[in-house]
Amino acid sequence: MKPSTILIADDEREIADLIELHLIKEGYRCIKVSDGLEAVQVIRTQSVHLAILDIMMPNLDGYEATELIREHHHLPIIFLSAKATDLDKITGLVRGADDYVTKPFNPMELVARVNAQLRRATQFNPSASSNTSVLEARGLVINPEQRTVFLYNTPIELTPKEFDILYLLASHPKKVFSSENIFEHVWGETYYEGGNTVMVHIRTLRKKLKEDRHKNQWIKTVWGVGYTFNGE
Protein backbone atom coordinates (compact mmCIF):
# COMPACT_ATOMS: atom_id res chain seq x y z
CA MET A 1 0.00 0.00 0.00
CA LYS A 2 1.31 3.45 -0.91
CA PRO A 3 1.88 5.83 2.01
CA SER A 4 -0.63 8.63 2.52
CA THR A 5 0.50 12.02 1.26
CA ILE A 6 0.40 14.98 3.65
CA LEU A 7 0.57 18.57 2.41
CA ILE A 8 2.34 20.98 4.77
CA ALA A 9 1.70 24.67 4.02
CA ASP A 10 3.67 27.02 6.26
CA ASP A 11 5.89 29.99 5.41
CA GLU A 12 8.15 29.23 8.40
CA ARG A 13 10.56 26.72 6.91
CA GLU A 14 11.85 25.43 10.25
CA ILE A 15 8.33 24.49 11.33
CA ALA A 16 7.56 22.80 8.01
CA ASP A 17 10.83 20.83 8.20
CA LEU A 18 10.06 19.74 11.78
CA ILE A 19 6.59 18.51 10.84
CA GLU A 20 7.96 16.70 7.80
CA LEU A 21 10.62 14.96 9.91
CA HIS A 22 8.05 13.51 12.32
CA LEU A 23 5.55 12.56 9.60
CA ILE A 24 8.20 10.75 7.56
CA LYS A 25 9.13 8.77 10.68
CA GLU A 26 5.46 7.75 10.84
CA GLY A 27 5.63 6.49 7.25
CA TYR A 28 3.93 9.38 5.45
CA ARG A 29 4.98 11.11 2.25
CA CYS A 30 5.11 14.91 2.54
CA ILE A 31 4.79 17.85 0.18
CA LYS A 32 5.88 21.25 1.53
CA VAL A 33 4.76 24.65 0.24
CA SER A 34 5.13 28.14 1.66
CA ASP A 35 1.85 29.86 0.82
CA GLY A 36 -1.86 29.22 0.43
CA LEU A 37 -1.95 29.57 -3.35
CA GLU A 38 0.68 26.86 -3.76
CA ALA A 39 -1.32 24.65 -1.40
CA VAL A 40 -4.45 24.98 -3.53
CA GLN A 41 -2.50 24.26 -6.72
CA VAL A 42 -0.90 21.13 -5.26
CA ILE A 43 -4.23 19.72 -4.11
CA ARG A 44 -5.76 20.42 -7.51
CA THR A 45 -2.98 18.60 -9.36
CA GLN A 46 -1.77 15.85 -7.02
CA SER A 47 -3.24 13.17 -4.78
CA VAL A 48 -3.20 14.55 -1.24
CA HIS A 49 -4.83 12.75 1.68
CA LEU A 50 -4.58 15.46 4.36
CA ALA A 51 -3.45 19.08 4.55
CA ILE A 52 -1.81 20.95 7.43
CA LEU A 53 -2.27 24.68 6.82
CA ASP A 54 -0.91 27.71 8.62
CA ILE A 55 -3.46 30.52 8.72
CA MET A 56 -1.21 33.56 8.23
CA MET A 57 0.46 32.87 4.87
CA PRO A 58 1.31 35.05 1.84
CA ASN A 59 -0.79 35.18 -1.35
CA LEU A 60 -3.70 33.26 0.20
CA ASP A 61 -4.18 32.79 3.92
CA GLY A 62 -5.32 29.49 5.38
CA TYR A 63 -8.97 30.52 5.45
CA GLU A 64 -8.99 31.54 1.77
CA ALA A 65 -7.08 28.44 0.74
CA THR A 66 -9.53 26.21 2.61
CA GLU A 67 -12.52 27.82 0.90
CA LEU A 68 -11.00 27.11 -2.52
CA ILE A 69 -10.01 23.57 -1.56
CA ARG A 70 -13.50 22.82 -0.23
CA GLU A 71 -15.06 23.70 -3.59
CA HIS A 72 -13.95 20.35 -5.01
CA HIS A 73 -12.14 18.34 -2.33
CA HIS A 74 -13.14 16.76 0.99
CA LEU A 75 -9.76 15.81 2.43
CA PRO A 76 -9.15 16.48 6.15
CA ILE A 77 -7.61 19.88 6.92
CA ILE A 78 -5.76 20.74 10.13
CA PHE A 79 -5.04 24.39 10.88
CA LEU A 80 -1.71 25.00 12.62
CA SER A 81 -1.56 28.57 13.86
CA ALA A 82 -0.21 30.97 16.46
CA LYS A 83 -3.73 32.40 16.70
CA ALA A 84 -4.65 30.69 19.95
CA THR A 85 -7.84 32.17 21.42
CA ASP A 86 -11.05 30.16 21.67
CA LEU A 87 -12.60 32.50 19.08
CA ASP A 88 -9.69 31.78 16.68
CA LYS A 89 -10.23 28.03 17.09
CA ILE A 90 -13.98 28.27 16.58
CA THR A 91 -13.49 30.50 13.53
CA GLY A 92 -11.06 27.98 12.04
CA LEU A 93 -13.49 25.10 12.50
CA VAL A 94 -16.40 27.10 11.09
CA ARG A 95 -14.31 28.13 8.07
CA GLY A 96 -13.82 24.47 7.14
CA ALA A 97 -10.98 22.97 9.17
CA ASP A 98 -11.39 19.53 10.73
CA ASP A 99 -8.98 20.22 13.56
CA TYR A 100 -7.00 23.14 15.01
CA VAL A 101 -3.57 22.98 16.63
CA THR A 102 -1.92 26.04 18.17
CA LYS A 103 1.73 27.06 18.01
CA PRO A 104 3.96 26.28 19.83
CA PHE A 105 2.95 22.65 19.44
CA ASN A 106 4.07 19.16 20.34
CA PRO A 107 5.04 17.40 17.06
CA MET A 108 3.95 14.02 18.42
CA GLU A 109 0.50 15.40 19.26
CA LEU A 110 0.22 16.76 15.73
CA VAL A 111 1.15 13.34 14.33
CA ALA A 112 -1.49 11.74 16.56
CA ARG A 113 -4.09 14.17 15.22
CA VAL A 114 -3.05 13.42 11.65
CA ASN A 115 -3.46 9.70 12.35
CA ALA A 116 -6.89 10.28 13.90
CA GLN A 117 -8.12 12.41 10.98
CA LEU A 118 -6.97 9.91 8.37
CA ARG A 119 -8.49 7.04 10.35
CA ARG A 120 -11.78 8.92 10.53
CA ALA A 121 -11.68 9.78 6.83
CA THR A 122 -11.27 6.08 6.04
CA GLN A 123 -14.18 5.13 8.30
CA PHE A 124 -16.46 7.61 6.54
CA ASN A 125 -15.30 6.58 3.07
CA PRO A 126 -18.41 4.98 1.53
CA SER A 127 -16.29 2.64 -0.60
CA ALA A 128 -15.20 0.99 2.64
CA SER A 129 -18.75 0.49 3.79
CA SER A 130 -21.66 -1.54 2.46
CA ASN A 131 -24.17 1.01 3.75
CA THR A 132 -24.26 3.61 0.97
CA SER A 133 -28.00 4.06 0.72
CA VAL A 134 -29.33 7.54 0.04
CA LEU A 135 -31.24 9.01 2.98
CA GLU A 136 -34.39 11.04 2.31
CA ALA A 137 -36.71 12.93 4.65
CA ARG A 138 -39.20 15.67 3.83
CA GLY A 139 -37.27 17.18 0.95
CA LEU A 140 -33.83 16.55 2.43
CA VAL A 141 -31.67 14.11 0.42
CA ILE A 142 -28.31 12.90 1.75
CA ASN A 143 -26.11 10.86 -0.59
CA PRO A 144 -23.20 9.28 1.37
CA GLU A 145 -21.46 7.94 -1.73
CA GLN A 146 -21.26 11.33 -3.43
CA ARG A 147 -21.23 13.17 -0.10
CA THR A 148 -23.89 15.57 -1.32
CA VAL A 149 -26.90 17.11 0.39
CA PHE A 150 -29.94 18.57 -1.35
CA LEU A 151 -32.78 20.45 0.32
CA TYR A 152 -35.86 20.82 -1.89
CA ASN A 153 -33.62 20.12 -4.93
CA THR A 154 -31.16 22.86 -3.93
CA PRO A 155 -27.60 21.73 -3.15
CA ILE A 156 -26.35 22.50 0.35
CA GLU A 157 -22.59 23.03 0.67
CA LEU A 158 -21.30 21.40 3.85
CA THR A 159 -17.81 20.97 5.25
CA PRO A 160 -16.71 17.34 5.72
CA LYS A 161 -17.38 17.48 9.46
CA GLU A 162 -20.82 19.05 8.96
CA PHE A 163 -21.68 16.31 6.49
CA ASP A 164 -20.44 13.60 8.86
CA ILE A 165 -22.52 14.99 11.73
CA LEU A 166 -25.66 15.23 9.60
CA TYR A 167 -25.19 11.75 8.17
CA LEU A 168 -24.51 10.28 11.61
CA LEU A 169 -27.73 11.75 13.02
CA ALA A 170 -29.87 11.06 9.93
CA SER A 171 -28.76 7.44 9.69
CA HIS A 172 -29.93 6.89 13.30
CA PRO A 173 -33.13 8.97 13.33
CA LYS A 174 -34.48 7.72 16.65
CA LYS A 175 -31.23 7.86 18.58
CA VAL A 176 -30.13 10.76 20.76
CA PHE A 177 -26.40 11.50 20.53
CA SER A 178 -24.61 13.44 23.25
CA SER A 179 -21.94 15.96 22.26
CA GLU A 180 -19.41 13.40 23.47
CA ASN A 181 -20.91 10.70 21.21
CA ILE A 182 -20.85 13.00 18.20
CA PHE A 183 -17.30 14.16 18.83
CA GLU A 184 -15.95 10.63 19.22
CA HIS A 185 -17.83 9.34 16.15
CA VAL A 186 -17.00 12.23 13.82
CA TRP A 187 -13.57 13.36 15.02
CA GLY A 188 -12.44 9.80 15.72
CA GLU A 189 -10.67 10.62 18.95
CA THR A 190 -11.33 10.72 22.65
CA TYR A 191 -13.61 13.50 23.82
CA TYR A 192 -11.75 16.18 25.73
CA GLU A 193 -13.09 19.72 25.26
CA GLY A 194 -15.16 19.06 22.17
CA GLY A 195 -18.50 20.34 23.51
CA ASN A 196 -18.10 23.81 22.03
CA THR A 197 -16.75 22.35 18.80
CA VAL A 198 -19.82 20.17 18.34
CA MET A 199 -22.15 23.02 19.31
CA VAL A 200 -20.58 25.37 16.74
CA HIS A 201 -20.86 22.78 13.98
CA ILE A 202 -24.49 22.05 14.87
CA ARG A 203 -25.28 25.77 14.80
CA THR A 204 -23.70 26.33 11.37
CA LEU A 205 -25.31 23.14 10.06
CA ARG A 206 -28.75 24.36 11.14
CA LYS A 207 -28.10 27.70 9.46
CA LYS A 208 -27.13 26.01 6.19
CA LEU A 209 -30.23 23.83 6.33
CA LYS A 210 -32.25 27.06 6.64
CA GLU A 211 -34.31 25.73 9.52
CA ASP A 212 -35.83 29.12 10.28
CA ARG A 213 -36.85 29.81 6.69
CA HIS A 214 -38.48 26.42 6.09
CA LYS A 215 -39.72 26.02 9.66
CA ASN A 216 -38.28 22.53 9.70
CA GLN A 217 -36.17 21.54 12.66
CA TRP A 218 -33.95 18.83 11.22
CA ILE A 219 -31.72 18.61 14.26
CA LYS A 220 -33.57 18.62 17.57
CA THR A 221 -31.94 19.46 20.86
CA VAL A 222 -32.88 17.09 23.66
CA TRP A 223 -32.10 19.30 26.62
CA GLY A 224 -29.58 17.82 29.01
CA VAL A 225 -28.94 14.85 26.71
CA GLY A 226 -27.83 15.84 23.22
CA TYR A 227 -29.11 15.93 19.64
CA THR A 228 -31.31 13.79 17.42
CA PHE A 229 -32.47 13.90 13.80
CA ASN A 230 -36.06 14.88 13.18
CA GLY A 231 -37.14 13.16 9.97
CA GLU A 232 -40.89 13.29 10.55
From TrEMBL:
Alphabetical list of SMART domains matching this protein: REC, Trans_reg_C
CDD domains: REC_OmpR, trans_reg_C
Residues covered by the OmpR/PhoB-type domain: 132-231
Response regulatory domain: residues covered: 5-118
Keyword set, alphabetical order: DNA-binding, Phosphoprotein, Transcription, Transcription regulation, Two-component regulatory system
UniProt DNA-binding region: 132-231
InterPro entries, sorted: CheY-like_superfamily, OmpR/PhoB-type_DNA-bd, Sig_transdc_resp-reg_receiver, WalR-like, WH-like_DNA-bd_sf
A Pfam family this chain is assigned to: Trans_reg_C
Modified residues (4-aspartylphosphate): 54
Protein's UniProt keywords contain Transcription regulation: yes
Name under which the protein is recorded: Response regulator
Gene source species: Paenibacillus campinasensis
Lineage: Bacteria, Bacillati, Bacillota, Bacilli, Bacillales
